[in-house]
Design a protein that fits this description.
alpha/beta; Rossmann fold; 10 helices; globular
Length: 244
């Protein structure tokens, strides 16, 4: 598939490497220009482009930028054909994104994103740590393969995203409609806790929306107090304990 990735941070960079390695035609952009994208991001065949070009002639656009930056990309996506699948990987962290009243009052994060950019989105790759995503993808059928939830309102969009998740080395799990994607937001049992296909549906079902903000902030406060000393496995353990 022809895929554009907007954002070259930890998740966006890993997406570029993995999807290009899987045989997709991938281009990646950030806000600072193609010359600032590290060569290792392009090592498997992805191409660095200007942000204005990342939306040209694509079948899928993946946005891997801070949630607070989403309103600013509306001019980029306005001209996309209706059949282009837009996949949102973002999460709301008030300490980083600033307070957003609608989200603080309970609006589902990716529903808010869809409103901001004026088109439907799929929610995927948000509920995985960058270290997990980079290092723990394995071939389909391997024992213990980890899973990623995918939520969307349109079946064809969801199936496209689920197929791409599989190409990045993880099982894809149908997480319902976009309005249900709060179940994979920060603070939920399914969020960054390294679960398998068999374990993930139960974690999604156990989520309690009212508890998410407090648990999210509790985990972030602990991580912040120990910044630099935690491994990916440490953070997974912390999340499992906090979000149980």
């Amino acid at each position: 598939m022809r895929i554009g990735i907007l954002g070259a941070g930890s998740i966006g960079s890993t997406l570029a490497r993995k999807l290009a390695a899987a045989g997709h035609d991938v281009k990646v952009a950030n806000s600072r220009g193609p010359e600032t994208i590290d060569s290792d991001v392009l090592a498997t065949g992805a191409t660095a482009v200007e942000a204005s070009a990342v939306v040209h002639d694509v079948e899928v656009l993946i946005t891997s930028i801070p949630l607070s930056a989403m309103p600013g990309i509306k001019p980029l996506v306005t001209g996309l054909p209706a059949d282009v699948v837009v996949i949102d990987t973002s999460n709301y962290y008030p300490a980083r994104d600033g307070q957003l009243q609608a989200l603080d009052e309970g609006q589902v994060e990716s529903v808010w994103v869809a409103e901001q950019i004026g088109r439907p989105v799929v929610k995927a790759w948000n509920a995985i740590l960058s270290g997990t995503f980079e290092a723990k993808g394995v071939a389909a059928g391997d024992a213990g393969r980890l899973a990623i939830p995918v939520a969307a309102d349109h079946a064809t969009d969801q199936q496209t995203a689920m197929s791409l998740v599989e190409d990045t080395g993880f099982d894809a799990v149908d997480a319902g409609r976009l309005a249900d994607s709060w179940r994979q937001q920060p603070g939920a049992p399914a969020y960054c806790t390294e679960l398998t296909r068999d374990e993930l549906p139960g974690a999604l079902a156990r989520a309690d929306k009212d508890l998410l903000p407090g648990r999210r902030d509790q985990a972030m406060a602990t991580i912040g107090s120990r910044f630099g000393s935690l491994t990916t496995d440490d953070v997974v353990t912390l999340n499992r304990t906090t979000y149980a």
